[in-house]
């Protein structure tokens, strides 16, 4: 064999070894941050996948360990519906953390607080009934209770809350009289979720309580294999939103805002599909060891067994593809080595 052919085979062997080592590295030590390796996970496929869901949708994704962010149509403004109730709750919990208020103090339900829409107070309580601020915060977040929000807004006002939004880097102009039913972008919601996550992780007096309320969201649109702490918002015909912190092995934020009317099977299915896409993206690029998850919460018309079967099938397809690539590389490596040894 001449020297030129030997060099070509040597390069082929080196290339195969490099690719095999690269696959092993990605499987055992996936990219942790774009700053660490000067490398950004590929997002072209994400943009293509999201384009299939129409033009009335925006997404914000952030891996909370690395700080990697992906945005899709994230500056578009939407009617916020109830999503800001979560950041309003953070504002109040932090006031309690500083000792400025007592969450045990009582607030009386008055006619001025009455509002229709979501919530349980208007169905189960009467004017003159009292609630602690702690009870109102739970109802504000988990039940998305409009009256609970308005009672808290009456107690705390908007001036301090508006300053708080400005201080965390948010948009004060998005604050409206009732807290909910204001304006929102996916970028702004991503900021809210990051601040909430920081408070929860800080180990504050009320961190776990707040997290529990978000985990107990009674109207989740984003579902995942992992625990989801979220605040949804909806208002026909132009708002169907969810802002979520997903507690994967490498936690991440996922915000989906849309100008949809909502409540249709297609809406639940699309949000579940988008969540699955970003869960797989996050697991692929930012998770070293993927724990065995609970079943994916299915949309209303899909059984839990079917959803779990779909997840397992997708995992097996991934394994088969990886195994096929490894086998091909090994065969090329063996062939090249034998040709090289024959000289």
What layout of secondary structure does this protein have?
Blueprint: H1 3-28, H2 34-37, H3 44-51, E1 57-63, E2 69-72, E3 78-79, H4 85-97, E4 106-108, H5 121-124, E5 130-132, H6 133-142, H7 146-156, H8 159-167, E6 183-184, H9 186-201, H10 207-215, E7 228-235, E8 239-246, E9 252-258, H11 265-286, H12 304-342
Antiparallel strand pairs: 1-2, 1-9, 3-6, 4-5, 7-8, 8-9
Helix pairs in contact: 1-12, 4-9, 6-7, 6-10
Question: Summed up, what is this model?
Answer:
By secondary structure, this protein is of the alpha+beta class. 50% of the residues lie in helices and 13% in strands.
Biggest sheet, in brief?
5 strands, antiparallel
Q: What is the total number of structural domains?
A: 2
Number of continuous helical runs: 12
CATH topology call of the largest domain:
Beta-lactamase
CATH architecture of the largest domain: 3-Layer(aba) Sandwich
Shape: elongated
The count of strands amounts to: 9
Strand residue content? 5-15%
Order of helices and strands: HHHEEEHEHEHHHEHHEEEHH
Tags for this model:
about 350 residues, alpha+beta, Beta-lactamase, two-stranded antiparallel ribbon
Describe this protein's structure.
This protein is an alpha+beta fold and about 350 residues long. The protein has 2 domains: about 1-30 and about 305-343; about 40-285, Beta-lactamase (3-Layer(aba) Sandwich), CATH 3.40.710.10. Helices cover about 50% and strands about 15% of the residues. A hairpin with a 5-residue loop joins β1 and β2 (about 70). α6 crosses α7 (about 145-155). The protein is elongated and about 95 Å long. Mean pLDDT is about 85; it is low at about 25-35 and about 290-305.
